[in-house]
């Protein structure tokens, strides 16, 4: 082996590494577009049976069937959002959001009641916070100067949401109109002799992801029922809406249940502001916490193993690592699309690299 061969090998290896790095960098930069495509693909997957029903049973033209399906799904989405209007209105009254001084007074009163219940003093808590490096202003009162910044952030989020919604609807329309659009687009980058493998991969991915999303809906339904029963027993107003919101957070793996639980307990406590802490607020919050724990135990030991074993056919530890890595690379969006994305990659690897020893071990359950 001469020096020229060695140098060419080194240059080729460096080029491959640089190409991989650039591809990952590109994916990170366009993660929003990837998320739009993924969401649109899911919508198309869910809406396709409706389009087929309208075309075959009701003899709708293809475009009219797609438009009708999109309007139906958009109507369901708007209907779900409208459920939260009573919740926001009620919580606005409870928190006295229109009266900043009343809001500060309610929260400070709740804070003092918590300290009194646990036998702590404000001086001791202040010392602990000072030792931990937190600001003393947290104890002395609630600083609401963040409200203008929050409103600006909310406007930005609303603007980004509008752009994202339009993008998803636009992409979903064409995915539904031409079910082979994504497949044909991918075939451009595949050699002719490998087209059959790609078509087989897409068909298998559709089957696996259909079962996966069906399992997710079952998971959310179980949590929704448990949360609704818990909140109704406790006597929280708008229990159905709160339960739906908190169950929906479970779409985000690992972090979502924590966020949903915190929101449920917080809304429960704010629903009873003004009542005695030790005899009313704390017991009701404790009952809600018990309901959350029961729901998560059922989810972790029944729902999730069922979904992963029967749909994506991957080991729970394997799924855990994939979700963590995707979260580090792409944030919350990555955590949401990690499992379906990983499943698609495994199917494609099995079709194109079925003779590889590593791929055989990785995809032996598919």
Written account of the structure:
The chain has 366 residues and is mostly helical. It is built from 14 helices and no strands. Helix 2 crosses helix 13 (316-352). It is globular, with a radius of gyration of 26 Å.
Biggest β-sheet description: none
Helical fraction equals: over 70%
What is the approximate shape?
Answer: globular
- Helix segment count? 14
Rg is 26 Å
Q: Would you tell me the structural class of the helices and strands? A: mainly alpha
In terms of quaternary structure, the protein is single chain
> Which stretches of 5+ consecutive residues score pLDDT under 50?
134-147
Order of helices and strands: HHHHHHHHHHHHHH
| Average pLDDT level | 75
Strand coverage percent: under 5%
Count the strands? 0
Span of the ends, CA to CA: 42 Å
What is this structure's SSE topology?
Layout: H1 3-29, H2 31-56, H3 62-94, H4 100-117, H5 122-132, H6 137-140, H7 147-177, H8 181-187, H9 195-234, H10 239-248, H11 255-271, H12 277-312, H13 316-352, H14 357-362
Give a nutshell description of this structure.
By secondary structure, the chain is mainly α. It has helices at residues 3-29, 31-56, 62-94, 100-117, 122-132, 137-140, 147-177, 181-187, 195-234, 239-248, 255-271, 277-312, 316-352, 357-362.
List keywords for this structure.
366 residues, mainly alpha, 14 helices
């Amino acid at each position: 082996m001469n020096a020229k061969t060695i140098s060419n090998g080194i240059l080729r290896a460096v080029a491959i590494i640089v190409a991989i790095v650039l591809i990952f960098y590109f994916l990170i930069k366009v993660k929003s577009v990837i998320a739009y495509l993924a969401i649109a693909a899911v919508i198309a997957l869910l809406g396709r049976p409706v389009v087929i029903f309208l075309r075959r049973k009701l003899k709708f033209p293809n475009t009219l069937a797609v438009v009708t399906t999109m309007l139906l799904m958009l109507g369901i989405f708007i209907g779900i959002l409208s459920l939260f209007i009573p919740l926001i209105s009620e919580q606005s009254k409870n928190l006295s959001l229109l009266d900043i001084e009343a809001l500060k007074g309610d929260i400070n009163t709740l804070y003092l009641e918590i300290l009194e219940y646990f036998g702590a003093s404000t001086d001791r808590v202040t010392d602990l916070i000072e030792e931990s490096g937190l600001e003393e202003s947290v104890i002395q009162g609630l600083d609401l100067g963040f409200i203008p910044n929050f409103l600006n952030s909310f406007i930005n989020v609303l603007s980004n949401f509008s752009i994202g919604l339009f993008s998803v609807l636009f992409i979903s329309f064409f995915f539904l109109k031409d079910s082979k659009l994504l497949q044909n687009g991918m075939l451009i980058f595949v050699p002719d002799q490998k087209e059959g493998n790609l078509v087989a991969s897409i068909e298998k991915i559709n089957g696996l992801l259909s079962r996966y999303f069906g399992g997710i809906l079952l998971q959310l339904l179980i949590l929704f029922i448990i949360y609704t029963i818990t909140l109704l027993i406790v006597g929280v107003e708008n229990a159905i809406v709160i339960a739906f919101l908190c169950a929906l957070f479970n779409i985000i793996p690992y972090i979502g249940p924590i966020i949903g639980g915190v929101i449920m307990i917080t809304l429960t406590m704010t629903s009873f502001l003004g009542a005695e802490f030790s005899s009313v607020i704390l017991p009701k919050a404790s009952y809600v916490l018990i309901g959350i724990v029961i729901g998560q135990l059922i989810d972790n030991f029944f729902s999730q193993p069922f979904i992963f074993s029967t749909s994506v056919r991957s080991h729970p530890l394997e799924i855990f690592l994939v979700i963590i890595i995707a979260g580090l690379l792409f944030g919350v969006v990555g955590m949401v699309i990690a499992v379906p994305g990983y499943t698609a990659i495994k199917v494609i690897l099995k079709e194109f690299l079925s003779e590889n020893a590593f791929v055989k071990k990785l995809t032996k359950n598919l």
